Amino acid sequence: MKNKTKEYYFTVIVPVYNEIGNMMRLEETFSSWLKEAPCSACVLFVDDGSTDGSREAIGGICRKNEDMFYISLGKNRGLSAAIKAGIDYTCSPLLGYIDADLQTSPSDFGLLLQYAGEYQLVNGIRVNRKDSAFKRMQSRIANGFRRMMTGDSATDTGCPLKVMHTSTAKRIPMFKGMHRFFPALVMLQEGAKYKEVPVNHYPRVAGKSKFSIWNRLAGPFADCFAYRWMRKRAINYNITGQNI
Predict the structure, then answer these.
(1) Which of 50, 106, 203, 233 could cross-link 33 (Cys pair, CB 3.0–4.6 Å)?
(2) What is the number of structural domains in the chain?
(3) Helix or strand holding residue 95 (H, E)
(4) What is the pLDDT along the chain (244 residues), one digit of tens a residue?
(5) Among residues 41, 49, 90, which one has the least CA distance to residue 66?
(6) Closest CA to 160 of 224, 208, 112, 213
(7) How far is CA 116 from the centre of its chain?
(8) Does 9 fall in a domain?
(9) Which of 188, 191, 192, 123 minimizes the C-alpha distance to 160?
């Protein structure tokens, strides 16, 4: 079956898990943005086993909007799995990632896309964050420990606004929690570079955060050790000639 994302230059992956309160905003926001996108773009919703009606809402949205598509996971597998599924099913040259809570805006993809020619990953940095002081403190601790363990120097890997070369994304070694390590994982590939760009941040207006102190702190700490193990054993090669 033909993958419709092949017809576009840029695919925005939107993982969704029990976000029924945000579905109308998502449709309105992306409908407006797609008309003004700086390149040929589409949206790929990834339903992560929602049980609150989000799956059905996504189907309705995609039937009404020709540039919006979806895939559905059989059961809830977590954010990293949903992002991986989106990457696996994307065939456009570039892909992006944004959270369904819309605490970042697709309008800021334009800020990132202008650097996509030179960098394999362009990562947003949330400025004037609208999260609670406790949540920001957790992020600072986790980011600081991650930088010490990985050496990637990235400022805000948790920012849910990213642009990547699809070919680069498909070569990233995947594991649970990998969405926090995109810069470090991309740097495992020979010649790959990433750039950070400031983007806007907004308060959540509907639904509930799926993150707790465990998956903001304890989980990432353990994942750092998994990354260091992986870094020493990662397979990396560059084809310099072929006749195939």
Answers:
(1) 106
(2) 1
(3) strand 94-98
(4) 589 999 999 999 999 999 999 999 999 999 999 999 999 999 999 999 999 999 999 999 999 999 999 999 999 999 999 999 999 999 999 999 999 999 999 999 999 999 999 999 999 998 877 555 656 666 666 666 656 666 676 778 888 899 999 999 999 887 777 778 888 888 888 789 999 999 999 887 876 665 555 555 566 676 777 777 677 776 666 677 787 7
(5) 41
(6) 112
(7) 15
(8) yes
(9) 123
Measure the CA–CA gap between 83 and 97, rounded to whole angstroms. Answer: 8
Q: Give kind and range of the element (H or E) at residue 198.
A: strand 194-199
Tell me the CATH number at 89.
Answer: 3.90.550.10
Q: Which residues 6+ apart lie within 8 Å of 78 measured at CB?
A: 48, 176
Asked, for residue 194, whether it belongs to a domain, the answer is: yes
What letter would DSSP give residue 73?
-
